[in-house]
Structure formats: C-alpha cells, structure tokens
C-alpha cells in the first residue's frame, strides 16, 4: 500500500534512451500517456553499434511516417544465416536489409518522441526502485544529487546490464559466452574485403567503409571467450587476425575495439507488477544477422499502445499481460535462431558437414523464404486464437487503397497509432459494428483497391496500432468481439492526458 505516498509525477518512466526506450516513449505519447525517459548519459552515444534495419522495422517506421526523415538509406546487400548467404527478399515494400548507423536511428527516434511530448532527462541514472500497489518510485542520481520520480509504471529499456531487471526481481536464465568475435574499426590498413571467410584457423570478416576505415572481425576456432570487463586490446585483434589470415594489421590505427560473444539469456517474464522490460534488458543475444536492435524495437511497438490504453482505463490487465504473452515467444524464437547461427558461424571444422547440409537446404526456395521471413521479422506473428482467420496475428502487408478520389494504403493511416478497420466490402453492417469504437480509438477506412494493384488477402480487416491483424473477414458480431478485446468497451474511452 502507498499510504500517503505523493501522487505520481508522470504516467510512465522509461529507463534508458537507447533506441528501444526512445521508440517506446514515442509510442506511449501516441497513445496519450505522459512519459519521462531517464538516461544516465549526458549525450547520445556515438559508438559504432547496430547498423542493420530489417524489413519489418522499416515497415514500422513507414507506418509511423518516419521514413521521409530517415532519407534513403543504402541497401545492406544480401543477408546471411550463420555466415551462409541468404537472400532476404520478402513481402514488404522495404524487402532486404538497410544500413542505418544506430546513432542515426536514435537521433531520429529522439526527435520524434520529443516532438510528440516525451520528456528526456539526460544525466539521470536510476539507482533504486520500489513498487507499491499503485505506483513505482524511481530513485535517481543527477549531477551527484539524489531525487525521486514517481510513476504508475516503469519500463526498463536500460540495455543488457539492466539495473531495472536486477532491482525489479526478474530472473534472467541462459548462459554466458563460450566463444567470441573480436571486432575493430581500423584506419590506414589495406586488406581485401572478406565476407564470412572460413580459414583453417578461424573466421575472418573485413569490410572497408566510407572514409577508408576497415571493420575487421575475427574468431579463432576452438578459443574460449575471455571474461571481460573492458574492450579487447588492439594487440589481441592483430594477433588473432595474423593467426587466421596471415596478414599484419599492426601498423593500422585502431578507432574502435569491441568483443561480443554467444551469450544468450532471456528474462523469464517481461512484467513484474508495475515494472516491465523491453529490448536488450529483456533479452541478451549475440548481435549476429542484425536482429538484436530490431527485436527490441518491435518489443517497444507492441508494448506502447497497450500500456497507454491500460492507463487510459479502457483496457483490462489482459491487454498489458498480452505483451509478455506475445513478445516472450518471439524473443525465444529469435534467440534460438541466433544460437543456431552462432554454432554454424563459430564452429570449427567439426561443423563443416552441418554447413554443407544447411547449404543444400538454403538453396530450396521454401527454406530460403522461411528463414528470410524469420530474420527480417516479417513472419513474427502472435497466436490468433482458436477459430480465427489464419492471418490474425500476422503483420498487415502494404497494399494500395483508394477512398473516393484519394489514394492511400494500408500503412499510412497507422501514423497516429490508432486502430484501423480496412473495409473493402462496403457492407454497412461492418461499419455499424465498429461505430462505437470510432471515437478516436479506431479509424474506419472504407476503401477500394485501385485498378492494376495487388489486392489484399482479405476483404475486411482490423489492424492493431502495432500493425498486426486483430480480425479478418468475420461476421459483424465477431468484429465487435475483437474490437472489445483489443480496444476496450464501446464508447467509454478516457484517454490519459499529460506529459
Ligand atoms: C558494442 C556493441 C556493439 C553492437 N553491435 C551490434 C550489431 O552489430 N548488430 C546488432 O543488431 N546489434 C548490435 N549491438 C546490440 C544493439 O546495439 C542493441 O541490441 C541495442 O542497442 C539495444 O537497444 P536498447 O535500447 O535495448 O539498449 P541500449 O542501446 O543498450 O540502451 C540502453 C540505454 O540505457 C541507459 N542506461 C543503462 N542503465 C541505466 C540506468 N541505471 N539509468 C539510466 N539509464 C541507463 C544506457 O546509457 C543506454 O543509453 C551492439 C551492442 C554493443 C554494446
């Protein structure tokens, strides 16, 4: 019980202004929740980190109207599975992978979230956490001064060494790294570009980037991961590179050094009362195939609208609990594919037979399509529930639509973060069924398919704010049931307001 505890300062405290915290802050603001982001760093990181955005993430940025500002990022070329070439073509207007430095993604999301009214407090480190029946108290240190921020919910988006996870009592089962890749950005060296080259002694990767800086990654087969509290030395990297390729890099100028291993852990639950986890705080994975950042962004997009609706009083606990129920299995599946890739990538000669069989499988169109959809996030679906259309739970695909004389599509109306009923049937009973939710929660879009464009695989569909299908081609009464499940009772919305 809180007794005489002061009123909360804000609806939600997000700990961490990394990409996941920033995405979540924007999503919460779209849903009308007041949000304060606490970030220990005084300025955004400029560290070279994740650089790949996959198709599902690009679809989400498209749905939120953020692609224009992102500009026209370069394509990332073909993908890979465990270092074996994988064509990532899939059903998205942004099929493939896209090269966007993490700092740029963060800057984009920070501008978006603050533009929507999120408050970001930099130089604020969370050091303590207490939850009571109706609020969470965050103890924070800023410029050596202790202060308290109270909120109704607190979300840990504070990365792989999450303080929130530790203080919030979340178990984090899994294993530490047994193998590692050393990585360095090096100036003043000339080595051939190498894409997952397997040598007798180990694995070597090199790519020359803009400005003449070469990123090298190297792993010696059979070498265990070194327990580290600091980055590797340049001498470690050059010695491993020499061992694997025979080339000398010692004359180069190291700009950035880093090691990452095949550690794999996942929080056993993503919610403990009023405290939740998202992104690397919820799951720790080897950043292979560029899935780590993308997975976290999708967590944020799943959680934001649900928590905002819960705070608005229209959604019961089931909606908030569905965050764990939907995202934990997706995370577990990605951790599984990353573990499989780590075995194929970092295994020595003993995995060659497995790689040979895998190579044959990857040549089969169906196997390629399956893996490409998994890596790019396009097949990340939530359980539809019994008796529902098979498309329920899957992400809506991009289709051109027309309303009267206006051209639109299935993505653009999602920019405001509201639900969307796409009705191509013209059946007045459907619109009548949805009318009690058309009070700002759900937009009804009666549309046609422009001639010469591919029609959707449905005649009518309800799309959640996160772009996943909630109902497809059912009866008006089943539509009303789906609307009630995801958007609360008819016409009783109290939107949370404030910042
Ligand atoms: C060196 C490095 C290289 C990587 N390379 C790749 C890659 O090539 N491909 C890939 O897909 N992924 C890569 N990753 C992983 C990718 O960067 C992460 O998946 C992604 O950043 C996760 O985003 P996040 O917002 O969950 O956490 P983070 O980006 O870690 O952000 C967490 C934020 O929380 C803040 N914070 C932490 N504790 C506190 C506290 N107590 N109080 C206040 N603020 C706090 C931190 O300062 C940080 O800003 C790499 C990560 C690292 C560290």
From TrEMBL:
Q: Which UniProt keywords apply?
A: FAD, Flavoprotein, Monooxygenase, Oxidoreductase
Q: Which residues form the FAD-binding domain?
A: 9-335
What Pfam families does the database record attribute to this sequence? FAD_binding_3, Rng_hyd_C
Coiled-coil intervals, chain numbering: none
**What GO molecular function annotations does the UniProt record carry, in alphabetical order?**
monooxygenase activity
Q: Which cofactor does it need?
A: FAD
Top-rank lineage group of the source organism:
Bacteria
* Segments passing through the bilayer: none
What is the name attached to this protein's record? FAD-dependent monooxygenase
Lineage per the UniProt record: Bacteria, Bacillati, Actinomycetota, Actinomycetes, Kitasatosporales
């Amino acid at each position: 019980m809180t007794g005489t505890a002061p009123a909360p300062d804000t609806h939600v405290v997000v700990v961490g202004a990394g990409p996941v915290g920033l995405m979540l802050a924007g999503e919460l603001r779209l849903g009308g929740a007041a949000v304060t982001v606490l970030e220990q760093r005084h300025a955004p990181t400029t560290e070279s980190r994740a650089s790949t955005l996959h198709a599902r993430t690009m679809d989400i940025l498209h749905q939120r109207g953020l692609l224009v500002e992102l500009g026209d990022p370069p394509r990332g070329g073909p993908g890979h599975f465990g270092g074996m070439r994988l064509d990532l073509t899939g059903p998205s207007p942004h099929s493939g992978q896209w090269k966007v430095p993490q700092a740029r993604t963060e800057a984009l999301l920070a501008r978006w979230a603050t533009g929507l009214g999120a408050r970001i407090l930099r130089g604020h480190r969370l050091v303590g956490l207490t939850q009571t029946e109706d609020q969470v108290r965050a103890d924070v240190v800023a410029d050596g001064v202790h202060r308290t921020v109270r909120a109704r919910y607190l979300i840990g988006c504070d990365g792989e060494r999450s303080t929130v996870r530790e203080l919030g009592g979340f178990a984090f089962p899994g294993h530490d790294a047994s193998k590692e890749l050393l990585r360095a950005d090096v100036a003043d060296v000339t080595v051939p570009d190498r894409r997952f080259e397997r040598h007798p002694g180990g694995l070597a990767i090199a790519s020359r980037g803009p400005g003449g800086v070469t990123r090298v990654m190297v792993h010696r087969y059979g070498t265990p991961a070194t327990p580290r509290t600091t980055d590797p030395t340049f001498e470690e990297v050059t010695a491993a590179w020499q061992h694997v390729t025979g080339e000398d890099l010692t004359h180069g100028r190291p700009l950035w050094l880093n090691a990452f291993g095949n550690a794999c852990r996942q929080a056993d639950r993503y919610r403990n009362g009023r405290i939740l986890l998202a992104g690397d705080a919820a799951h720790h994975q080897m950043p292979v195939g560029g899935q780590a950042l993308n997975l976290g962004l999708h967590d944020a997009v799943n959680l934001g609208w649900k928590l905002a609706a819960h705070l608005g009083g229209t959604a019961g606990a089931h909606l908030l609990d569905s965050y764990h129920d939907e995202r934990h299995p997706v995370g577990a599946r990605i951790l599984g594919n990353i573990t499989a890739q780590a075995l194929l990538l970092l295994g020595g000669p003993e995995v060659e037979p497995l790689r040979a069989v895998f190579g044959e499988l990857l040549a089969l169109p169906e196997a390629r399509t399956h893996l490409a959809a998994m890596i790019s996030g396009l097949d990340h679906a939530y359980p539809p529930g019994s008796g529902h259309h098979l498309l329920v739970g899957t992400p809506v695909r991009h289709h051109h639509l027309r309303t009267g004389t206006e051209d639109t599509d299935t993505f653009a109306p999602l920019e405001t973060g509201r639900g969307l009923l796409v009705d191509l049937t013209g059946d007045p009973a459907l619109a009548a069924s949805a009318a009690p939710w058309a009070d700002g929660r759900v937009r009804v879009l009666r549309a046609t398919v422009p001639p010469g464009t591919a029609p959707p695989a449905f005649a009518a569909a309800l799309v959640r704010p996160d772009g996943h299908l909630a109902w497809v081609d059912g009866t008006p009464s089943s539509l009303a049931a789906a609307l009630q499940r995801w958007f609360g009772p008819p016409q009783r919305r109290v939107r949370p307001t404030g910042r």
